[in-house]
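User: Predict structure, ligand magnesium ion.
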Amino acid sequence: MDAESVAAEVRNCDERNTVLEARGVTKRYHLGEVDVHALRGVDLSICQGQMMAIMGPSGSGKSTLMHIIGLLDRPSTGTVMVEGEEVSQMLPNELAAVRNRRIGFVFQSFNLLARTTALANVELPLVYAGVSAAERVTRARAALEKVGLGDRIGHLPNQLSGGQQQRVAVARALVTDPSIVLADEPTGNLDSVSGVEVMRILQGLNEQGITVVLVTHDETVARHAERIVRLRDGLLVADEEVEQRHVATAHVDGAGEAALAERTAS
Ligand code: ADP
Ligand code: MG
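Assistant: Predicted complex:
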């Protein structure tokens, strides 16, 4: 199938609302003399309440696409809509407001502040949002409880395992009550047991109605989503429904059995 015919086959959301939409998105980076064409015309509709995985080889443009749909970066050409709002022409402060209100991010390397407790890390987005100190503590604590870390709120990142640090990062993504969570290789730095635990949390959020988009190069991780899109050389080359979706059923305290508890949905 050539690029044009794939691009023409955009999957629309039909009866579901479209929460994120990219149309004709391209991204070029100029590195000295070199011109890198990271995205070469991507059309993508992400539906409300959907859990979607973006796959593709290293360098295919996954992170670039995630940064653009997450409003961390702008396309070179093309448009991005968030919940029906065209964002491509917004001013930086308007963009930041939409992002802070609607989108939570999780990164492969956790991106927690060292020498800062789990609680304070999770509070941070609320500091930027101007929430009062007392309310910040209440909400950050609740978010940490939600990811099974209610008993670790005073720990520093280096006193937590990788899996726990990523759960703190998920709590930080959640604390602003976003409608969309974007996760770029969230299990990439984790052992398989911790990875299942993070996927269980992401699936739980999705069950509560949050739209989840995750980038991964692990087919098993991707199969926790209901839909997989594949990028190659900056183009969307496939858009599939997952038939036998994986359900992560690990328990926070049952770490040893977590991987075994992985099962396939019927
Ligand atoms: P992936 O996440 O799929 O590995 P990326 O989106 O990170 O891919 O990168 C896509 C392409 O764009 C790669 O060739 C990469 O080297 C290039 N690229 C990404 N970010 C930048 C940047 N800030 N400056 C220059 N080139 C970049
Ligand atoms: Mg990447």
